[in-house]
Design brief:
Elements (H helix, E strand, L loop, with lengths): L3 E2 L12 E3 L16 E6 L10 H15 L3 E4 L16 H7 L11 E3 L10 H6 L7 E2 L5 E5 L8 E5 L16 H5 L3 H12 L6 E5 L16 H12 L4 E4 L5 E4 L6 E5 L14 E5 L3 E7 L3 E8 L4 E9 L1
Parallel strand pairs: 3-4, 4-5, 5-6, 8-9, 9-10, 10-12
Antiparallel strand pairs: 1-7, 2-16, 3-14, 7-8, 11-12, 11-13, 14-15, 15-16
Length: 316
Amino acid sequence: MKKIAGLFFILVIGCVALQCSTPAAENQQLQIKEDALHFYVLGDWGRKGEFNQKALADQMNATGAVIEPEFIISTGDNFYPNGVASIHDPQWKYSFEDVYDGHYVNCPWYVVLGNHDYRTNAQAEIDYSAISARWKMPARYFTVRIGEEEDEPSVRLVFIDTSPFEREYYEEAKYKDKVAGQDTTAQKMWMDSVLAINDADWKVVVGHHPFYTGGKRMDEVNTVRNALESLLTKHNVDVYFAGHEHDLQHIKPETPTHHFISGAGSEVRPTGKLPITLFAESIQGFMAVSVLKDTLLVQVVDYRGRVLYATELNKK
């Protein structure tokens, strides 16, 4: 299945319609879902191959020989420490092209901006889409529907720009002028209209900042969640993927949405757990997602190839 339809979508589901299976035991075998739509989720990675970034990239490629991802999602902070200066910045070569050089990671990458990407020239990451066959960021926020045939599993992916909703950035010199230029009201109106379309089996939102975390920012006021969670709840979003925290987490609040943090693409930091945490680990890794019409499987794979966690969301 290699069918990716253009920009726009959605689907409905609720906490009532979703059930989460028992998490898999650590170091289990990678599960293979026949006829599924497979993709990866990875974030916070661009460090010229250091901090096990290259080792993880090679493991992503090795895992790809088994499940063949159709695309990869980046949850932001694509280039450290300060994003890129232009489409010709050497970081493109040393932190992206030369690192993710295997056959099975040479597929479309759907990308959102992280706060580090905001520091220099965020527009350059959008512009790179025009010269790269695999880098897909047509705008700061956009949507893609995957799965064209009626008998295929389908996903509406809604990619958002969360940095302008982070209130503290308006007080920091490295961010304030850049976030102030973004119209958060327009983005919320766009999200509301796009998420109201119910045209796919699964509805997935991708942003950089998590709504919930047991990591470094556990005790901070979450202005991104305060601004946007009501939209995800209103439209019964199934899954929210984020990065920002340099770890791997699965959190399930009392809303319809499962929250996954995949921000362990290179440097990691210690993490922890909330009462609503289902999984948390601090090690370089990515999430391999397999989608069928009535199930969505998320497997967490570390840079050594160990499956640390697996959970399956089921629709009644």
